[in-house]
Design goal:
By secondary structure, this protein is an alpha/beta fold. It has two domains: 5-88, Winged helix-like DNA-binding domain superfamily/Winged helix DNA-binding domain (Arc Repressor Mutant, subunit A, Orthogonal Bundle), CATH 1.10.10; 91-298, D-Maltodextrin-Binding Protein, domain 2 (3-Layer(aba) Sandwich). It has helices at 5-17, 20-27, 31-45, 61-88, 105-118, 131-140, 186-190, 204-207, 221-229, 239-243, 277-297; strands spanning 50-51, 58-59, 94-99, 123-127, 145-149, 159-173, 194-197, 215-218, 234-238, 249-251, 261-269. Strands 3, 4, 5, 6, 7, 8, 9, 10 and 11 form a nine-stranded mixed β-sheet that branches. The chain has a two-stranded antiparallel ribbon with strand order 1-2. Helix 1 packs across helix 2 and helix 1 packs across helix 3. It is elongated.
Length: 298
């Protein structure tokens, strides 16, 4: 490659400004340098980029075709510089975030928008494992931060911070036999199939919130919701998740002590795995947002 970034910058500036003199003012260079840079670029590329017959240079057909390519090269160079600057300042090459429930995205999305603005060149990997799998990813160093429901038993190696409380709903489809009942007892729930979210590991956490001896284990809240809609069983789902499908499902009128469940949502990380700049910013932003949510509830 014979042409330089300075030549491409001169080409771009002249095309956008409409004259070599205006391009020189934008770039803070002498007009003669701009003219020479463009002339040398034309020699290197073997085409004329401008028609110079009139008072102001006009892009040629070849110049119009090559301009977007030149701009793309300059943008990629800016991106390269931005990534390198971030890495030199301590920003991680990639931030890996695991979220137990994809239905958390509406409130989490605001922070991710801010993250994109503050770290425009950051590479983000966003995963949606089940709680037990999420803890395993953190322990192994596969992810940097996790957002999960509060576990019955916490891995002692991990650190936690409470973010918010999530109310659970017992729901069925409108066509399910339980939907026809004025009140539903625990015994009635036990007589029907329960649809439960499961990870890929066994343990006490998997059996949490199990009420029925008949269970279909399903990996993910959305598949559970689809099976509920089809009348294949009842489920205990997060309030914000169930509300999104109220046209197809109903909340059961329960009559037993555990009918109103609340589960904490936690930020989880491994203290032995240090965070980069972006991860530390997101961690602090999540903790700050959680304090705002708690203040609103008081």
């Amino acid at each position: 490659m014979k042409y330089s970034l300075d030549q491409l910058s001169a080409f771009k500036a002249a095309a956008e400004c409409g004259s070599f003199s205006a391009a020189a003012r934008r770039l803070g260079k002498a007009q003669s340098l701009i003219s020479t840079a463009i002339a040398n670029l034309e020699i290197d590329l073997g085409v004329s980029l401008f028609h110079r017959e009139g008072r102001y240079p006009q892009l040629s057909a070849e110049g119009a075709r090559l301009l977007p390519e030149a701009i793309a090269i300059l943008q990629r160079c800016d991106q390269l510089s931005g990534i390198a600057h971030g890495l030199a300042a301590g920003q991680e090459a990639k931030l890996r975030l695991a979220v137990d429930d994809s239905a958390q995205m509406p409130w989490l999305g605001d922070l991710l928008e801010q993250l994109a603005v503050k770290f425009p060149y950051l590479e983000l990997e966003l995963l949606f494992p089940i709680m037990e799998d999420l803890h395993g990813l953190l322990l192994s160093g596969r992810v940097d931060l996790g957002i999960s429901y509060e576990a019955a038993e916490h891995p002692k190696e991990l650190a936690f911070h409470a973010l918010r409380q999530c109310e659970m709903q017992f729901v069925v489809s409108r066509q399910h036999p339980l939907a026809l009942q004025k009140t539903v007892s625990l015994e009635m729930l036990q007589n029907h199939r329960q649809l439960m979210v499961t990870g890929r590991h066994s343990g006490a956490e998997k059996e949490r919130f199990r009420y029925s001896p008949s269970v279909w284990w399903v990996e993910g809240d959305w598949p559970v919701l689809e099976l509920v809609r089809r009348g294949l069983g009842w489920a205990c789902l997060p309030n914000h998740f169930a509300d999104a499908a109220l046209q197809d499902i109903v909340q059961l009128p329960l009559q037993f002590s555990e009918s109103r469940l609340q589960v904490g949502v936690q930020l989880v990380w491994h203290p032995a795995h240090p965070l980069g700049l972006a991860g530390q910013w997101l961690k602090e932003a999540l903790i700050h947002k959680s304090s705002q949510i708690m203040d609103q509830l008081e």
